[in-house]
Design a protein that fits this description.
Elements: E1 13-17, H1 22-33, E2 37-42, H2 45-57, E3 62-66, H3 72-86, E4 91-94, H4 110-138, E5 141-146, H5 159-179, E6 184-191, H6 197-203, H7 207-215, H8 225-236, E7 247-250
Parallel strand pairs: 1-2, 1-4, 2-3, 4-5, 5-6, 6-7
Helix pairs in contact: 1-8, 3-4, 4-5
Bound molecules: nicotinamide-adenine-dinucleotide.
Nicotinamide-adenine-dinucleotide (NAD) binds next to helix 1, helix 4 and helix 6.
C-alpha cells in the first residue's frame, strides 16, 4: 500500500516491542525510514537481531533487546539499556501481544488466561511504568499502546484476548489523564483484521476463512501492517499534539 505521508524523526528515539514480525516490524521500519534511532524489543532475540541487521545496513541506529514484556525485570532492563545507549526515549509503541485459543470461556484454562493477560495487559503496564519514569524525567514523550477491535467489542471465543485489549484501553485513558499536563501523550490503537502471523493463527491459514473475514469489513479487505504503522507514526507527530487518551480504530470500518 503506497503512502504519500512522510515524517522527519531525525534525532528521535523510538522503541517498538514485538518488533520482529507483523505490525511491530512494519512500525519499526517506518520509524527507521523517518530517521529515528530504533530500539527493537521482543521475546525472540534471533529474529530481532535479523531485523536490526537489516535496518543498520540501511543506516539506521538500532538496538536489539531480548525482552519478555510479561517480566517486569526484563522490561526495566530494556528501558535502562535504551537510556544507556541513546540517552532518552521519545516514542514508545507497546505492540507485543498474543492471541488466545479460540474456545468458550468455560473451557479456557487458567494458564491460558494468565498467559494472555500477562503479555497483553501486564506487558503493556510494565512497559508504561518504566517508559513513564523516563519520560517524566525528560519532560516529554509519546506512548502508543496496541489494543484491538477486540478491545472495543466482544469477540466470541476469544474472551481472554478481548478482556486484555479492553483493559489496555482503561490503562491508556487513565494514564493519559495523569500525564497530559506533563508533556506526555498516551493513546491506543485498535486494529481490525491485519495481514500478519497472528491473523494466520485466527484463520488457521485457510484462504476460505480469510475471504469470509474480509467480507465482514466494510472496506472489503484486511489492513496491511504498514497502514497500522502509518497511524502510530502520526500519533507520535506534531500533527497530533492534542490527541490524548484516544482509542483509534484502524479497521476498515468494521467497528463503526
Ligand atoms: N493481526 C491482527 O489482525 C491484529 C488485530 C488487532 C490487534 N492486533 C495486535 O497487534 C499487535 C501485533 O500483532 P501482529 O498481528 O503483528 O502479530 P505478530 O504475532 O506478528 O506480532 C506479535 C509480536 O509480539 C511478540 N511477542 C509475543 N509475546 C511476547 C512477549 N511476551 N514479550 C515480547 N514480545 C512478545 C512476538 O514475538 C511477535 O513478534 C498485538 O498486540 C495484537 O494483539 C493484531
Amino acid at each position: 500500500m503506497d503512502s504519500d505521508v512522510s515524517y522527519n524523526y531525525q534525532g528521535k528515539v523510538a522503541l517498538v516491542t514485538g518488533a520482529a514480525s507483523g505490525i511491530g516490524l512494519a512500525t519499526a521500519k517506518a520509524f527507521a525510514v523517518a530517521g529515528a534511532a530504533v530500539v527493537l524489543a521482543g521475546n525472540n532475540l534471533g529474529d530481532i537481531q535479523k531485523v536490526a541487521k537489516e535496518l543498520a545496513e540501511n543506516g539506521t541506529q538500532v538496538l536489539a533487546i531480548e525482552c519478555d514484556v510479561a517480566s517486569e525485570d526484563q522490561v526495566k532492563n530494556m528501558i535502562a539499556k535504551t537510556i544507556e545507549v541513546f540517552g532518552k526515549l521519545d516514542f514508545a509503541y507497546n505492540n507485543a501481544g498474543v492471541m488466545s485459543r479460540n474456545t468458550e470461556t468455560s473451557d479456557l484454562t487458567t494458564d491460558e488466561w494468565n498467559l494472555v493477560i500477562g503479555v497483553n495487559l501486564s506487558g503493556v503496564r510494565n512497559c508504561m511504568k518504566y517508559q513513564l519514569l523516563q519520560m517524566k524525567q525528560q519532560g516529554h514523550g509519546v506512548i502508543i499502546n496496541c489494543s484491538s477491535m477486540g478491545g472495543l467489542r466482544g469477540a466470541k471465543g476469544l474472551s481472554a484476548y478481548s478482556a486484555s485489549k479492553f483493559a489496555v484501553l482503561g490503562l491508556t485513558r487513565s494514564a493519559a489523564l495523569e500525564y497530559a499536563e506533563q508533556g506526555i501523550r498516551i493513546n491506543a490503537i485498535c486494529p481490525g483484521f491485519v495481514h500478519t502471523p497472528m491473523e494466520q493463527t485466527v484463520s488457521g491459514g485457510s484462504l476460505d476463512v480469510l475471504t469470509e473475514m474480509a467480507k465482514m469489513v466494510p472496506a472489503k479487505r484486511f489492513c496491511e501492517p504498514e497502514e497500522i504503522a502509518d497511524s502510530v507514526l502520526w500519533l507520535c507527530s506534531s500533527g497530533a499534539t492534542m490527541v490524548i487518551g484516544q482509542s483509534l480504530a484502524i479497521d476498515g470500518g468494521i467497528t463503526t
